[in-house]
Fold:
Amino acid sequence: MFDSLNLFLYNSIDNPNFEIQTDSSMFSRILFYFFLAFCAVGNAQITCTPSDSSLFVVKITELSAVHGKNLGDSLVAVGKSFLDTPYVEKTLEIGDTETLVINLRGLDCTTFVENALAFTWMLKEEEADFKHFTKKLKTIRYRDGLLNGYPSRLHYFTEWIRNNKKKGLVEDVTANIGGIENKKAINFMGTHRDLYPFLKRDENYNAILEAETELAQESLCILPQNQIEDSEHLIQSGDIIALATSIKGLDVTHTGIAIRQEDGRIHLLHASSLGSVRITQEPLLDYLKKIKSNIGIIVARPTLLSP
Structure:
């Protein structure tokens, strides 16, 4: 739901430019086999442009050189491969019917995390074809991995974490690093129906209300902003960071990937509404202090079906 919340996203600054280089003959061969794979899934509920098809081939070829020491390091490396990719909101709001949107040309904060996680999962499984990518992205993006209309998308990030924990893809470690239970009604979509074009249809709106009713039974676990400094050493590079908010009806306004920089501090690798994927110049805590509505963070650690 973050693509409709651009007004709640805050400040960060540019990162170094990133340049992709690949052998042209190898690229051509991979592109040929890719389109064969793409045709095989062409009847699925997928929206993908030729540009995104080409970018997938470049990306998976480039990432074949990534050999992280652990999942967190791999996720950071994949995330950094998206540096300077433009920030684009509402990339998933296409057409009248929910489809699995593949857009590597422009990312919002959530699609950045989802795509980075999907590519990292592919590296772990030593996969390189488009069919596996789409399957993994769908598994991550939708409730129980099933695309069944607009309401099946995991719009609230706390539900995104819970459902992906259920799938074995992440672990919510917030409580382990000092998080505190927080009870709050999560109903922003239901109370702001006019912000979401897909909610014009009563069936979608009613399904979202039902999902919000279920969310109301869950408590949030948040590491308060004033306690992050004492727990920062427990946050690992590659952890998924969700920014908790005091805004009524909302759980999270922004998300990104933790990255420990040369200063020894945790910074945020994220798709910034100020223009592109970048790393915050200041440490995460200092970045959060600039956000009036921020009350802390929720931390999810990638597991990707690891035993």
Remarks:
- Confidence is low (pLDDT under 50) at residues 1-43.
- The chain has one domain: 2-302.
